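Give me the fold.
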Amino acid sequence: MGKGEQASPAAGEGRCVLAVDVGNTSTGFGLFSADAGETDEPLGTWELTTPEKLTADEARMQVAQVLGVLARDVAEQRTLAPTRAATFAEPPLDAVLSCVVPSLTEAWSAALETVCRTRPVVVGPGLKTGLRMRYSDPAEIGPDRIADVVAARATYGAPVVAVDFGTTMNIEVIDGEGAFLGGIIAPGLALGAQALSRAAARLPVIELHAPKAAIGRSTREAMQSGVVFGEVARVDGLLDRVFAELGEEAPVVLTGSGAGRLAPLVSHTAVVDKTLTLRGLHQLRLGVVRRR
């Protein structure tokens, strides 16, 4: 397993690397050891709701608060002495940002630079990813999609297919040569449920749980069947088409907020990887550090 070129926690007094993944619905944070390798898990994670608007000061406050929480969590997990634990609350050595909401990118970038005292690596057009691209216009690819692909290839090899259940449901495909072929973007689970209740006056807002049977015995159960089982059927069908185009089957990794809930229902063998996107961001930052 490759190692980053930054100082180890012992040399850096426990200071870490902060990865921030700003999605349309939620914002995820991952705190990594300064010497974490490409496939190492974060020391701790946290998730907040993504607001429609955010000032740099508000983002700065959130970063500072999350760092404090993660520092305490890490200290408790490692049973560190108070003086040693305090160092985890210091600014990280570096930061990396993925933001799919363009109006929020500047605020988050400024906040990270202020709190972490270093300019963050912002994943976007122009950043070298180490991936061979077979996408028509790589600049169109969202930073979260890039992070998923980078982490999936590093952890599971090639070929591999990553399915990310978020505001949208994204399927990303790496071929047997390790090149990014492209993917699929569709409305996510919550969007499907919201569309039903908004467009049909008599349909309620439902909880996103799978009913006991496909044939619903109430309006809520019927909607849950259509939304949840429909999503699973769509994923299974799309995976069949992906494998047919690849000419072979590949490992499937599920990530995102709905991964754990939907994994038992998917017919294809798949592994749930909750920190895939955050690890991909950390790996992208490692690539930047190594090229400096």
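Residues 219-246 form the longest helix (28 residues).
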